[in-house]
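Side project, low priority. Logging it here so it doesn't get lost.
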Amino acid sequence: MRRRLRPAYTDADMVEVYPQAYDHTRWPDHIDRVQRTIEFAARVFPVAESVADLSCGDRAIPESLARRWSARCTLGDFVPGCEYTGRVESTITQIPPVDVYICSETIEHIDDPDALLVAIRAKAQRLILSTPCDETITNPEHYWRWGVADLADMFSDTGWQPVAFEFLDNPDLDVRYQLWACR
């Protein structure tokens, strides 16, 4: 069941919650999820001319896919060197239209995830999205907890049609991730 976990953080809170830039190589489970997300996206969408990720962290997913697809890559986040800097809810309105938008382990960090999915729909033809599924651990970064049916409803309500789905399991952690491809 979809459940709100905490109120949204202020910009000052964000600095404390995210004290350093994201580096997926710090955790073995993140390395695995990043690689499996790349493989899933390339399998479901074998061709794309452009890809965007405005919460790209260390850029591993969008840059790898851009190389595979020989695609234009639009990057954004709070990290230096990104074309768009700031909250994804604001920067999404600034980017040009793209073929594929990557939303990897981001939506659970967003105050209004439905509004973000609508905004991405206005900019992208296709979507790759991953998020925890029925998360049982307490993560101080996450605003939301949800299951597969909740995400399916959110996609339907925001103009997306799922075309592929799989679970990303990690036996070492009590967290299961859901990985979606939508048109």
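Brief comment: The radius of gyration is 15 Å.
Revisit when time allows.
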